[in-house]
Design a protein that fits this description.
By secondary structure, this protein is an all-alpha fold.
Length: about 150
Amino acid sequence: MPNAVTASRLAIALTAALVLAACSGQQGSHSTEGESQAQAASSAGLPEGRIAVGEKLAKAKGKATGQSCVDCHGAEGNAPIDASYPKLGGQYADYLAHALQQYRAGDRQHVLMTPQAAGLGDQDIADLAAYFGSRPSQLRDLAGAQ
């Protein structure tokens, strides 16, 4: 049943991207002087992600839905409020960044994620991706799962 395994992996990955986009509805780029933690620029063509700023964004209520990332995904992105919501902690930062860019552009659609991502700037996306990518991972490899 390779197709069922592939479909399950895709569903998990897409759900993770959808929910992350709902994490922040704040507009524009955020900068903090003296930011000490940073992650290298992504393959998504974004600036360096700042982990500490991303943590603040992940906890901020978005204007589009009134929810924050941690409201739905839990602390550090590892305790979703619903089993269908993905765990974001430890996910590849580049994957998260690309997913958020697609939601922002309207290339991906989700009732919560699309409006939340619409207000994110490039720096916001880089910061959120850096934060969730730096968290401990509870993701599991489904290769060989039946």
